[in-house]
């Protein structure tokens, strides 16, 4: 099985497990989210280690192993991206499985198990992007919209679209439900590696909000900000972010 097929298979299977946990459990709230994290993480980590024993692995739900830093190939996973949304019975959560090679997100799969049907967005199966709306739609956090996103959307005549997980937001741009996902509240590598791999394969712009590249498999997994958007909106959005920067 190719790396891309493996990523898609594992994301889909983890998604099915998570739906089974949610539908068959008496747990609720944080306890349900924790159970989903444990089940999906165990499945993904065991499967990756069995299928690609020589590769590194970074998971949100595993103790970090610094040995990954010496590896060229590192799998970066988020077993449940949007645990809160998952535990609330919402659809805007995801499963992320990505492979970074020498720091670059070369392939990934993002499963959206809460949507009708088995939706898995893959970097090896890019689809044509839908037509854009004339005014950009900016995806933001349901509870903590980024200041920059609010300001840039206003400046560009855009509208805010609240949504849950990072993966759900990124895939909403790929699916044509929005044009821009601008995040400045801080994330970790597992929050964006698979979504970025899929978005890049679909021809979207992906970078830090200052335009610099996104690099993965770092010792510090924290990533302060992220921009995923239609390429047509990259320059205007980056220009507005720069204009908002302190001292400008």
UniProtKB/TrEMBL annotation:
Chain residues that bind Mg(2+): 60, 78, 81, 191
UniProt keywords, alphabetically: Magnesium, Metal-binding
Cofactor or coenzyme needed: Mg(2+)
Entry-linked PROSITE patterns: IMP_1 (PS00629)
Gene3D superfamilies in alphabetical order: 3.40.190.80, Fructose-1,6-Bisphosphatase, subunit A, domain 1
Catalytic activity: adenosine 3',5'-bisphosphate + H2O = AMP + phosphate
GO biological process: 3'-phosphoadenosine 5'-phosphosulfate metabolic process; sulfate assimilation
InterPro entries with a match to the protein in the record: CysQ/Inositol_MonoPase, Inositol_monoP_metal-BS, Inositol_monophosphatase-like
Single annotated GO MF: metal ion binding
Descriptive protein name: 3'(2'),5-bisphosphonucleoside 3'(2')-phosphohydrolase
């Amino acid at each position: 099985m190719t790396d891309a097929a493996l990523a898609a298979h594992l994301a889909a299977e983890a998604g099915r497990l998570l739906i089974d946990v949610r539908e068959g459990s008496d747990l609720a709230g944080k306890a349900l989210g924790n159970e989903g994290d444990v089940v999906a993480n165990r499945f993904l980590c065991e499967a990756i280690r069995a299928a690609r024993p020589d590769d590194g692995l970074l998971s949100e739900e595993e103790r970090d192993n610094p040995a990954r830093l010496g590896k060229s190939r590192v799998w970066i996973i988020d077993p449940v991206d949007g645990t809160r949304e998952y535990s609330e019975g919402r659809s805007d959560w995801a499963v992320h499985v990505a492979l970074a090679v020498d720091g670059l997100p070369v392939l990934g799969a993002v499963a959206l198990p809460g949507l009708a049907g088995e939706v898995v967005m893959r970097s090896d199966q890019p689809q044509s992007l839908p037509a854009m709306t004339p005014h950009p739609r900016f995806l933001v956090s349901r509870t903590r919209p980024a200041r920059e996103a609010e300001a840039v959307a206003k400046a560009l005549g855009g509208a805010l679209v609240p949504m849950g997980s990072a993966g759900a937001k990124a895939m909403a741009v790929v699916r044509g439900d929005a044009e821009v996902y601008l995040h400045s509240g801080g994330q970790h590598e597992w929050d964006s590696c698979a979504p970025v791999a899929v978005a890049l394969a679909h021809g979207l712009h992906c970078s830090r909000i200052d335009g610099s590249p996104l690099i993965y498999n770092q010792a510090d997994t924290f990533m302060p900000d992220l921009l995923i958007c239609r390429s047509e909106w990259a320059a205007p959005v980056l220009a507005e972010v720069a204009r908002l920067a302190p001292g400008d």
